[in-house]
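Renewal narrative, Specific Aim 1. Our central claim is that a sequence can be written position by position from structural information alone. The example that follows is taken directly from our test logs and has not been curated for this report. It begins with the structure tokens describing the chain, in the order in which they were read.
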């Protein structure tokens, strides 16, 4: 009859050598780099995701009633761990947002003890997302790859019910009720995403030690902590005149 059910699943892997920005010639200078800001590097695109699921359907009309639903889910959007230095970049390109961090191994005896202790405190923080910790530990002892961190899968469910009333010939009224992010109505911890932003600034340059010829770093203890996003449930009521 007039019922329907649609479903699609996408497995994606989008890579590039620079997720170019808009409109200016030096757009690639925003690309996260290891050293030379002119050196493009291959990695996951900023538009990358891994899994996408869309399911929607509606019931056949029964006594003027229709009910429908839509499920939308996305997972695997990327993030990177960066080093931050206000005012200029480590590599002197005057961009303090594009320097990929060297992930110091806290268990390596060559790592500064103060820095190692700060890293362990961050790793032991229960508020820090586990997938950020996994990303760190996987690449500890090397520069963090661009966009190699992956956010978890999250989905929302929307519901709709409509009722049609015939008035005269082709004229009528249609009442609608839409419940967006329906699961969040019943459990406030459901229907939210836990996506980290593309730039996770874990290390901040605190100074330079001329004796050892090394930078001094400060660990940002709140990086990747409590990443909760999305919108709460919403109810929308509507009336439509049909003619």
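The sequence written for that structure reads:
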């Amino acid at each position: 009859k007039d019922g329907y059910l649609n479903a699609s699943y996408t497995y994606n892997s989008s890579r590039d050598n620079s997720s170019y920005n808009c409109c200016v010639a030096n757009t690639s200078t925003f690309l996260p780099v290891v050293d030379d800001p002119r050196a493009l590097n291959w990695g996951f695109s900023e538009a990358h995701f891994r899994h996408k699921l869309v399911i929607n359907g509606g019931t056949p009309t029964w006594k003027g009633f229709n009910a429908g639903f839509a499920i939308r889910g996305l997972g695997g959007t990327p993030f990177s761990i960066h080093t931050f230095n206000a005012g200029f970049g480590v590599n002197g390109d005057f961009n303090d947002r594009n320097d990929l961090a060297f992930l110091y191994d806290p268990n390596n005896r060559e790592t500064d003890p103060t820095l190692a202790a700060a890293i362990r405190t961050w790793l032991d923080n229960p508020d820090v997302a586990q997938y950020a910790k996994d990303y760190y530990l996987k690449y500890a002892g090397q520069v963090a790859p661009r966009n190699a961190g992956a956010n978890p899968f999250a989905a929302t469910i929307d519901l709709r019910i409509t009722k049609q009333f015939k008035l005269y010939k082709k004229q009528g009224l249609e009442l609608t009720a839409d419940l967006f992010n329906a699961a969040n109505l019943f459990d406030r911890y459901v229907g939210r995403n836990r996506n980290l932003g593309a730039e996770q600034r874990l290390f901040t340059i605190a100074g330079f030690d001329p004796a050892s010829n090394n930078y001094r770093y400060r660990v940002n203890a709140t990086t990747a902590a409590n990443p909760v996003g999305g919108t709460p449930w919403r109810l929308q009521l509507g009336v439509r005149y049909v003619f």
